[in-house]
Automatic annotation (TrEMBL):
NCBIfam families registered for this protein in UniProt: PRK06988.1
Organism: Cloacibacillus porcorum
Highest taxon listed in the record's lineage: Bacteria
GO cellular component: cytosol
Domain Formyl transferase N-terminal positions: 19-177
Protein name as annotated: Formyltransferase
Keyword Transferase on entry: yes
Annotated InterPro entries: Formyl_trans_C (IPR005793), Formyl_transf_N (IPR002376), Formyl_transf_N_sf (IPR036477), Formyl_transferase-like_C_sf (IPR011034)
One Pfam family from the record: Formyl_trans_N
Amino acid sequence: MDRAKIVLFAYSEVGCLCLEELIKEGANVAAVFTHNDDPGEEIWFRSVRAIAEKSGIPVHTPQKLGTQETDYLRSLKPELILSCYYRALIPKAVLDMPRLGAYNIHGALLPKYRGRACVNWAVLNGEKETGATLHVMTERADRGDIVDQERVPIEFTDTAYDVFMKVAEAARLILARRLPELEAGTAPRRPQDEAEATYFGRRRPEDGEIDWDKSAVEIYNLIRAVTHPFPGAFTELAGKKYYIWKARPLEGSAAPSKIVSDNPPVVGTGCGLLEILRLQPEGGEEGETFQ
């Protein structure tokens, strides 16, 4: 029996793992749409394009899905569309093409954490768990019926990178579990509870500025949410800009931003103290000392 013809929209490590799962399972992937890497972004994940090309799958990297791309997709006659961390909205004309539907994997437990940078936000907010959600794609991002979810824990010492890798594996597990039903058109669906929905927007490098009036735990959560490979948390100490890549909260008290110890650096916050374990002066080398 012929397998359903799939078009995959994918990027980042989630996209890589899901594409590898489809290849492993012998799925009929007719084409892959992905992105060219942004030279201004630290690329810490593998290449969807390289994985597809190695398997002989046609790859496309348009800047946007315009008329030409829509016409090409229509000519392919896809039966199933899957999106795994593709960064652009897919037009309704494309979503309506496959007879078996279009599905997306989102890096959170919908309806919580709709939107962008959901793993970073979950760590920043001190969540104890997150996960991945397979859901029906609609014109409105992250709103469609839920097919399946996989939960993962967020440990207090986890960085956003640590959590992202857990979420990527959760995405792969979901796809492996539900692929036969997706191909057969029998995947279960349940509506999202709008009363439980939360939304978080895109994060920018400037959002990493530390507010020392916040508690040590809140600042610690920000640092681990945006540390490598993300742009980092930063502050001005002793008249100089520093990036803080690693820290830990301590008991104690001091005025917010007051440096109470130089070796190791310990700084007062709105509640508790923050010990700085790894920092970097702007334009300098990353190290473990405060100068």
